[in-house]
Every structure is written in C-alpha cells, then in structure tokens.
Amino acid sequence: MCPPLLVSDRVEEGKLVLADGFKRLAAARELGATAALVRVSALDGVAAEVAMISANAGTRGLADLEEGFIVHSLHRTHGRSQVEIAELLGRHKSWVCRRLQMVEHLDPRVLDDLRLGLIGVTMARELVRLPRGNQADAAMAISAHGLGSRQAGRLVSVLCATADPDQRRAVLGNPLEHLPEDAAKRRERSDPRLGFYGDLWRRHLLQLGATSNRVIELFREHGVGQLSRRESKILGELGEAVLPAARTALARLQTELEVETRGGNGQQSPATARE
Q1: Would you say residue 94 lies in a domain?
Q2: b/e string for 127-158 if b means 16 or more Cβ within 10 A?
Q3: What domain range is 154 assigned to?
Q4: Cα 255-257-260 angle, rounded to 5 deg
Q5: Is position 217 within any domain?
Q6: Parallel, antiparallel, or unpaired: how do β-strands 17-20 and 5-8 relate?
Q7: What is the DSSP secondary structure assignment for residue 90, as one 8-state letter?
Q8: pLDDT per residue over 36-82, tens digit each?
Q9: How many Cβ atoms sit within 10 Å of the Cβ of residue 184?
Q10: Is position 57 within any domain?
C-alpha cells in the first residue's frame, strides 16, 4: 500500500498544501481516483519545503533541479543562509551551494531546456561554468550536434579558453572538430588490422557501447522515477520489443567470438573439427 500524501495546514490559511506525494497524486488522478489517504501536519512554509526533500532522501523522487528550486526558495523567499539550509536538510553546505548555483547561474532559456529534458542535469552543471549570456548558444550546439555529457564538458572547457568571438562561433558551429581528441575519438577511426567487414563489426560494437553508456547516464541523471505512468507503459512496450533482440545478438556474438578465440589459440574450432 502506498504511504499517505503529506499535506500541511499552516502554509496558507484555510488550505491544505501538498508537501510530499506529487507523483502519487498525479497517478491517482490519472487512474480516476476521487479520494486519497493524507497525513495532515502543522508544517510552516520552511518546514514544508524541507519535508519535500527529506521525504525523498535516498530515492529518485526529486531531480537535482527540483531540489535546486526548493533550496532557492528557502534562501531567497525565506531568507535562510546556505549554512542554515544545510543544517535543516542534513546536507553539506557544498550540496546546498551546487543546487543554488544550478538555479541562479543558469540562463532562463537553459533552465527551460532542462525542464523539458532537452539537456541533462550533468550538462547543465557544465554549462554553469560559462557566463549566462553564452550558455544558451552552447546548449543549442550541444543539442544540435547530439553531444554526450563528456563531450559537452570538453566543449565548455574549449569555450572557456576561447576569447575571440569569431573563434567561439566557429567552435559552436562545428564543435566536434574543435574538441580535444581523446581515447574514444581515436577508437572511431578505422582499425588497420581489420578488413572491411571486420571494421564494420567494430563500428557497430562501438555504437552499441556508446548507446549503453548513454542509457546509464540517463539512469544517473533522471532515473525512471521521473516518468509518468503513461510514459512508463509506452517505454515498457518498446523495451519488450527491443531487449529480446539485443539479448539474442549479444549472446550470439559472445558465443561466436569465444569459438573463434579458442580456435585462434591453438584449439580446434567446431568448423575445423568438422573438416
């Protein structure tokens, strides 16, 4: 059974204000429920906002940005210092500073992209390093060229070290050509040890690895807890269609490569034995 919704009767006179259980309430409404179990608590504005974070501690209930808005409200609306907020939430002051920085140092347009899921929290943390006036263009370049989190970090580093406006525009216009070469980029080149089909296999395997890493990043940044019931159903159906094929391909690949490896180490492969 789901825990009751947490509401406060002291934030606004004559009103019950929801402090915890937003996703549960949305799910109940989607299912057509007309009643819900609630727990009423005498929390003032500060205590209610603290409860929003405390009730989700150790879970994926709140994203970094949502925590940032709560910290921002405690700091700017309720006048609490960062040290006081850290004590209220049982967090380190550096945690409070990062959440506050995310909200206050990001360009409003970047915040909108973050809310819409066009960029991830990790990328937003990188963009904070840029002056606010330069963040939106960088975010647009990241989205347009499909850069991952690490590539976005390197792009921001390049932009931070580039003072010439024309050079900055060139970097934003074609960021992949200006990023420092790393091991991942070197691996994208053809391997001279492989023939055409061997290198084709290699490229597909690298793409599979890159996609898998991106899925892991999505889990770390957002988690599936941010999805609505309808979104979970749609993606669940897609997973049922995609995952069996992926498992079959990986199992077949592993088996075939193990056979070839054993054959190459002086042991007879099944094909050689049949001959």
Answers
A1: no
A2: bbebeeebbbbbbbbbeeeebbbbbbbbbbeb
A3: 106-180
A4: 110
A5: yes
A6: antiparallel
A7: T
A8: 887 787 777 787 787 777 766 655 556 677 788 888 888 988 898 99
A9: 14
A10: no
pLDDT tens, 199-241?
788 878 877 877 777 777 667 666 666 667 788 888 888 888 8
Residue with tokens 């290699």: 202
For the record, the structure tokens of 111 come out as 């915040």
On whether the pTM is more than 0.70, the answer is no
Calpha distance 56→49 (Å, rounded): 12
Per DSSP, 181 falls in state: P
Neighbours of 64 (CB within 10 A): 18
Tokens 């606010």 -> residue: 132
pLDDT confidence of residue 183: 45
The residue assigned the tokens 């609306």 is: 77
**Mean pLDDT, to the nearest integer, of 177-182?**
72
Q: Per the domain annotation, does 143 fall within a domain? A: yes
